[in-house]
Amino acid sequence: MPNKIIIKKRIKSFNNQIEVSGDKSLSIRWVLFASLAYGKSRAYNLLKSEDVVASIDAIKKLGIKVNVKDNFCEVYGKGIEGFQYKKNLIINAKNSGTLGRLILGLIINSNNKIKIIGDKSLSKRDFKRIADPLKKFGAKIKLSKNKGLPLTIEGTVKPKPIKYYEMKGSAQCKSSVIFAGLRTDGKTLIKAKKSRNHTELLCKYLKLPIKVKKLKKFDLITVNKAKKIRPFNYIIPSDISSSAFFIALTCLVKNSKLKIKKVNINPSRIGLLTILKMMGLKIIFKNKTVYKGEEISDLIINTPKKLKAINCSAELNSEAIDEFLVIFLLAAKAKGISYFRKLGELNQKESPRLDWGQKILNKMGIKTIVKNNSIKIFGNPELKINKKIIIKDYLKDHRVFMTSVIAALSFGGEWHIHNKDSINTSFPNFLKLINKIKNEN
């Protein structure tokens, strides 16, 4: 079968409800925490994507038993010092920056060299940003010439606590240092720019020796060595980043309504919802609850009468970093000029996403100006596409593929979108849910 999708028709108005896959960030973190726990942990609704499977394969290589069933996954942890560091060990993070960076903190005390490899996209990403602080713990890390993968790490039996200033808003780097701190005698101090806080919330739920003091723009985090992590069961909530594509589709398709069930609305992840409210979307939250520190809610979205152009504060960037491609689509339909600034981190993702956001909009006929990692989007509320658009050679970035599908269904034209298997990284049933909405209306 050809590894591309062709879309020739816009989707009709719809009224539907869906439940998207489990949260990728939480799925990977559950796997890693469970591997350090002593005993059996079980997760339900674990995302079965390539990134999560890579995480499971990684802890298996470290000597941890895993039992994957249709409706749950079990990890049999051996305790905080339970990893087996075999000689010539190679861990393949595939496309996952979360796994590639977080695993380095977990293996800070390895007594043998371990090689970390990844796919073409991940290998181009910056690993110096996490290698530098981990070297201060005492680990020996050798990067490839482009500061990416492959890399080798040789840990230290007695890591030393460090002071770490995380300035980029990288939850991955912050989390990796937290994991290293949990394996280090003494007090590790982290001053971190605001970013998603799933790791800290799981630490709090597990009653691990970590304290977080919240300031306006930074968090001050103190980490001490964990003596023991108890096993725990977890029902993974739905992913807000996966939900974003269907929220955008509802906003862009006239007279539509959608309910998305059991979505993780962690305050550090809902920049998308804040930005869409500024653009004119009214979101109804139903059945709100807090589960093991994470806020969860059903979301009800109705197509707004019109979308407003906005001047978006850069302070929202870290809370919406994975959703900007679909936000750009909404800005394309808004009346006026939208401005998004300081988005350099987008080009540190699976593909240079700021560049690809501009490319997609330009192919659609939308004027943009990109300068100094910022973008101006000249919206057109009457936009309808009547031409052929080809999307390919984008390093198989799953979010580029899914954004292109939403654009095709919303604005029309004939779209040839290559590498449809890219969705296996984060959202394998994306097209299945798209077809459910198309076929049930």
List keywords for this structure.
441 residues; alpha/beta; UDP-n-acetylglucosamine1-carboxyvinyl-transferase, Chain; 2 domains; 4-stranded mixed β-sheet; 13 helices
Secondary structure blueprint with pairings:
Elements: E1 4-7, E2 15-18, H1 24-36, E3 38-44, H2 50-61, E4 65-68, E5 72-78, E6 89-92, H3 97-106, E7 113-117, H4 120-123, H5 128-137, E8 140-142, E9 151-154, E10 163-166, H6 171-181, E11 188-193, H7 198-205, E12 210-214, E13 218-223, E14 234-235, H8 240-252, E15 257-264, H9 271-278, E16 283-291, E17 294-302, E18 311-312, H10 324-333, E19 337-340, H11 353-364, E20 367-371, E21 374-378, E22 388-391, H12 398-411, E23 414-418, H13 430-439
Parallel strand pairs: 2-15, 3-14, 6-7, 10-11, 18-19, 22-23
Antiparallel strand pairs: 1-23, 3-5, 4-5, 7-9, 8-9, 11-13, 12-13, 15-17, 16-17, 19-21, 20-21
Helix pairs in contact: 1-2, 3-6, 5-6, 8-10, 8-12, 10-11
Give me a quick take on this structure:
The chain is 31% helix and 26% strand. The chain is an alpha/beta fold and 441 residues long.
Tally of helical segments: 13
CATH superfamily of the largest domain: Enolpyruvate transferase domain
Strand tally: 23
CATH topology (level 3) name of the largest domain: UDP-n-acetylglucosamine1-carboxyvinyl-transferase, Chain
Radius of gyration: 21 Å
Q: How many independent structural domains?
A: 2
In the predicted model, the low-confidence regions spanning at least 5 consecutive residues are none
The largest pleated sheet is described as: 4 strands, mixed
Major sheet: order of its strands? 2-15-17-16
- Taken as a percent bin, the fraction of beta residues is 25-35%
Query: How many angstroms separate the termini?
Result: 27 Å
The CATH class assignment of the largest domain is Alpha Beta
Oligomer: single chain
